[in-house]
Design goal:
The structure holds 2 protein chains of 2 kinds. By secondary structure, chain A is of the alpha+beta class. Helix content of chain A is 32%, strand content 33%. Chain A starts with 11 loop residues before the first strand and ends with a helix. Chain B is built from 7 helices and 8 strands; from the N terminus they run E-E-H-H-H-H-E-E-E-H-E-H-E-E-H. The chains are: A alpha+beta, B alpha+beta.
Chain lengths: 187, 186
């Protein structure tokens, strides 16, 4: 893996979006993006208030500095409106793989922003970080996420039963992954 | 977490001590052990054994990892290793891993040790899920996972890189209801 790449404050661009590392001033937006209870059904943790978001952002910046996670806020290029969070997680240099996760402000659902951001992060992972595999998991009740994973070229690998406990219930999770060769075929 | 030791018909499972270092290095030295696992080196020196034993005794590590050595009850010989690792209390799950000295293959030793630790996981640790993986090139390990009641969940492609080669992994797991069905609890 290319270890020379700095992940902190590295901005990526797509046709409609800028993906950038969040800064402390983003805390309120960061909190607002994940505010809707419909999002809470589908993710494990989220900032509960602005203070929480400040802490999350500090942690995100630390992880980027350590080059283990590249978590970005994606904003509309034209208006700078923040619409979602996405990230390459647990970047593993030894096995050249990483996880990918994402969520989008409910006001901006169904416009393809999240897949646009995810595709850009994948491109970064495969071409700049030279990853071999990018994997993702979603709760089985989250159809939108499963659909997104397929749309960006991931393949279903397995369903892990009772993998996570959330609100006192055990949840099954679908696991998907894309390999560098899958990615190259798509290009 | 385990105070003393676990027992089966033929085996004792307990934490290794510094006195076990030489026996561990001897039991694990065959290159096929290193070839079928992710983190066991080859060659494996007594010094490697000492640092492993020191690591598994670390109190911080012990909170989330139970790494035991497997001994023949009659002879006292160290013949393998087995562990419940990455124990996540929040999700009540853990991962099972093991190896067995080549001279003791095909005797059901690993299945016997694994069954005991799975039982410990469900009954004592109150886990909900125990999962395990193996290289797809290792059907003997997949067979152990099936024998302890795990179900094949799927296969992850190119999950590891070992000696420059990408490796696919089988994922197996048993959840508490499988365990109860198997044990006839319900």
């Amino acid at each position: 893996m290319n270890q020379d790449i700095e992940l902190l404050d590295l901005a990526l661009e797509t046709s409609r979006l800028i993906l950038r590392t969040p800064v402390p001033d983003d805390a309120e937006n960061f909190y607002n993006i994940a505010r809707d209870p419909e999002i809470h059904r589908n993710i494990y943790t989220w900032p509960k208030n602005t203070e929480d978001a400040i802490e999350s952002i500090a942690k995100i910046r630390k992880l980027a500095l350590e080059k283990t996670h590249h978590i970005v806020l994606f904003v509309l290029k034209e208006t700078s409106t923040p619409v979602g969070i996405a990230g390459l997680n647990r970047i593993d240099g030894r096995h050249r793989k990483a996880g990918i996760a994402y969520w989008c402000d409910k006001n901006h659902w169904r416009k393809g922003y999240t897949s646009e951001a995810v595709l850009r992060l994948m491109q970064f992972g495969f071409t700049e970080l030279r990853l071999e595999r990018i994997e993702a998991a979603s709760f089985v009740h989250n159809d939108a996420s499963a659909k997104l994973m397929v749309k960006v070229g991931m393949r279903f690998e397995y369903t892990a039963r009772h993998e996570f406990m959330k609100d006192g219930k055990f949840l099954d999770a679908h696991h998907y992954a894309i390999l560098k060769t899958d990615w190259e075929e798509r290009q | 977490m385990i105070k003393t030791q676990l027992e089966t018909q033929r085996l004792i499972l307990r934490y290794p001590t510094s006195d076990d270092a030489e026996a561990l290095a001897k039991a694990i030295k065959d290159p096929i052990i290193a070839a079928t696992t992710l983190n066991i080196p080859h060659p494996y020196t007594v010094e490697d054994a000492r640092s492993w034993i020191e690591m598994v005794q670390d109190q911080e590590r012990k909170k989330e990892n139970i790494d035991l050595s497997v001994f023949m009850k009659e002879s006292g010989e160290l013949i393998g290793g087995i562990g419940l690792v990455n124990i996540r209390e929040k999700h009540r799950h853990a991962e099972l891993g093991y190896w067995c000295a080549v001279s003791h293959w095909n005797k059901g030793i690993t299945t016997e040790a694994a069954s005991r630790l799975v039982k410990y996981g469900f009954e004592e640790l109150k886990l909900e899920r125990i999962h395990a993986t193996c290289f797809v090139s290792n059907p003997a390990s997949a067979s152990v996972q099936e024998k302890v009641g795990m179900k094949h969940e799927g296969t992850g492609r190119h999950e590891y890189i070992k000696d420059g080669e990408s490796i696919d992994l089988h994922h197996y797991a048993i959840i508490s209801s499988d365990w109860e069905d198997k044990e006839g609890v319900r």
